[in-house]
Amino acid sequence: MNDDLKRPHSEPSSDVVSIALEDGHPDKMVKVGRDHPEATRCSLVELLRKFREVFTFSPKEMPTIDQAVIEHRLNVDPTSKQVVHKEAYGSRAVRHQH
């Protein structure tokens, strides 16, 4: 088994609070877990607000970025026939464990 798969992964907190990075812009929100100590949350929010100009919330906010960098394309021949593969043995059991 790959070492990356053996390492424990943290799960996102289901108990979060939405924080506006900028007053008057409800579309520019981040979510911060409530399970952090109050002082840590306050420091994190302060830091995020201080550096809010580095975050983007839509491609329109990045007009100088080449679209090829932010756009995902599949190299698929549109004239080829679609093939549906059988599910691998055991993959259903693995998928339902998480």
Structure, briefly:
The chain is of the alpha+beta class. Helix content is 29%, strand content 10%.
Structure description:
There is one protein chain. This protein is of the alpha+beta class and 98 residues long. It has one domain (3-72). It contains four helices and two strands; from the N terminus they run αββααα. A two-stranded antiparallel ribbon has the order 1-2. A hairpin with an 8-residue loop joins strand 1 (16-20) and strand 2. It is flat and about 55 Å long. It starts with a helix and ends with a helix.
Topology:
Layout lengths: L2 H4 L9 E5 L8 E5 L4 H13 L16 H4 L20 H7 L1
Antiparallel strand pairs: 1-2
Entry keywords:
98 residues, alpha+beta, 2 strands
Instruction: Tell me which oligomeric state these chains represent.
Output: single chain
Total of DSSP H or I helical runs spanning 4+ residues: 4
The helix/strand class is: alpha+beta
Strand content: 5-15%
Radius of gyration, Cα only, in angstroms? 21 Å
Number of E strands = 2
- The helix/strand series, from N terminus to C terminus, equals HEEHHH
Tell me the distance between the termini: 18 Å
The overall pLDDT average reads 80
Number of domains: 1
Helix amount: 25-40%
Pick out the low-confidence regions. Answer: none
